[in-house]
Specification:
elongated; 24-stranded mixed beta sheet; 465 residues; 9 helices; single chain
């Protein structure tokens, strides 16, 4: 009975097993055919097909190969042509691009027929671009206009001005397809960043582990310039501004910067072609009085080599609109920095009068000195002294004071050439030495930027009046 049952099952499934084992051979034949199909192109001479490949890259990717070392066919991970050590031009031959390897991923129908070459995508591996900053618009437009799939891996981008390096963006990766579409990452200032485009109108940027984030909205496209609105967050600080960028300058307007210590508005023009220069107007809305004392002049001075390259004008305004005003009602400061030479002028409207100072300095010197000429005009001395709670018997008359001298910015040492109070001149060494000692002991004991401390000014006034 068992034997009959076994024979029945065997006869029933015999044809199935025969068909299964037949498929095994078909699969082997199919696999061998695929291997041959993919392997045979490995033996082609692709130098003969170079012109076809070159024209395809020009037409589909606006990338023209100038020279290369070799071209070969790879089977894995997908059939592709690999072009080694490529020097090329992109964006209508405007931008030079050096690439260690260009992989062109082929459609299967193009493995044997290159006449109508149509690649799936290309990958640029380990590339370098050195770009004058005035051409940055061309690079951005080139990336935006690409319709074919492209992946850029490990790109080092150096932005220059007249062959001088301004900024390096390293290890950049970018994709315009797949789930990483319009995402890019890399390193800037030694820190890793991530960024992404949304609908070609929004750019989101994040500098990892720094608390720095930026959101940029680009306005309607224009071939001659890029403009939009930016919001930058730096830890607890927020900076919003409109911008307009073209081949020669960056314009910042309608800006607002604020944090717990400072609130300002800013308008700035930064030109970088044919020469670098900038002009900025800063309006202080509100600030913490202790903020000035936190500025480290020594740290700023450590960048003096950069000052040699700057040509900048800055105008700072402050209008005290508080109901209960302090000593300063209004302040205006103008600074002109020209390749290491600094010129300045400022004006304080204070209770009872005003102060005006001007001067210059060569701040790239090892021990820079600030030459100054200052004038104090008071219509009512008593009104000012009341602000410092000085109750000495003083008449409500005016005071005119003029002083000239020089100040060592780093060592906080001052020398007076002359001091004139009303019609009396203090020119002898003994008088000038007295003012010098009191000024250094009371006002400069903690550095130049701490002389605005109210208690220090009060103590100094008590010494000299």
């Amino acid at each position: 009975m068992i034997i009959k049952t076994y024979k029945s099952i065997h006869n029933k499934y015999l044809n199935f097993f025969k068909f299964f084992f037949f498929l095994r051979y078909v699969f082997v034949i199919f696999l061998i055919s695929i291997i041959f199909f993919l392997s045979i192109p490995k033996f082609f001479d692709y130098k003969k097909k170079y012109e076809i490949v070159k024209n395809h890259l020009i037409k589909s990717y606006d990338l023209e190969i100038i020279e290369y070392s070799e071209i070969e066919f790879n089977i894995f991970p997908m059939p592709n042509l690999s072009i080694k050590n490529v020097n090329s031009k992109i964006a209508d031959k405007i931008i030079d691009l050096k690439t260690a390897n260009i992989n062109i991923f082929l459609n299967p129908r193009n493995l044997y027929n290159y006449k109508n070459l149509d690649s799936k995508r290309i990958i640029l591996e380990t590339s370098e671009i050195s770009l004058d900053i005035k051409k940055i618009n061309e690079l951005i437009n080139y990336v935006k206009k690409l319709k074919k799939e492209i992946s850029i891996q490990n790109l080092d981008l150096t932005l220059t001005r007249e062959k001088d390096s301004l900024l390096k963006i390293q290890n950049t990766n970018f994709y315009n397809y797949g789930y990483k579409k319009d995402h890019f990452s890399g390193r800037i200032f030694g820190k890793f960043f991530k960024a992404s485009f949304e609908n070609n109108h929004f750019l989101n940027f994040k500098l990892l582990k720094t608390g720095i984030e930026a959101n940029i909205k680009f306005n309607k496209k224009n071939s001659s310039f890029i403009q939009g609105v930016s919001k930058i967050k730096i830890l607890n600080s927020l900076f919003k501004f409109d911008f307009k960028l073209n081949d020669s300058e960056l314009i910042i307007s309608n800006s607002n910067f604020r944090n717990q210590d400072l609130s300002i508005s800013l308008d700035s023009n930064i030109a970088y072609s044919p020469f670098f220069n900038s002009s900025s107007t800063i309006n202080i809305i509100n600030f913490d009085k202790d903020l000035i004392g936190k500025i480290k002049l020594e740290k700023i001075y450590s960048y003096r080599e950069i000052f040699k390259k700057l040509n900048s004008k800055i105008n700072i305004n402050y209008d005290n609109k508080k109901l209960f005003k302090d000593i300063i009602d209004n302040y205006n400061f103008s600074l002109d920095l020209t390749y290491g030479r600094l010129f300045f002028s400022n004006k304080f409207i204070i209770t009872g009068g005003e102060i005006e100072c001007s001067g210059d300095s060569i701040i790239i010197d090892q021990y820079p000195r600030l030459n100054f000429s200052c004038k104090l005009e008071l219509e009512n001395k008593k009104r000012l002294l009341r602000k410092f709670y000085i109750n000495q018997k003083i008449e409500n008359d005016s005071l005119n004071l003029i002083s000239e001298g020089s100040l060592n910015i780093i060592n906080n040492r001052i020398n007076f050439k002359t001091i004139k109070v009303d019609n009396k001149n203090y020119t002898n060494e003994e008088d000038l030495e007295y003012f010098k000692i009191k000024f250094e002991e009371i006002l400069l004991d903690e550095g130049l930027l701490r002389i605005f401390n109210k208690d220090k000014i009060k103590n100094f006034l008590l010494e000299i009046i």
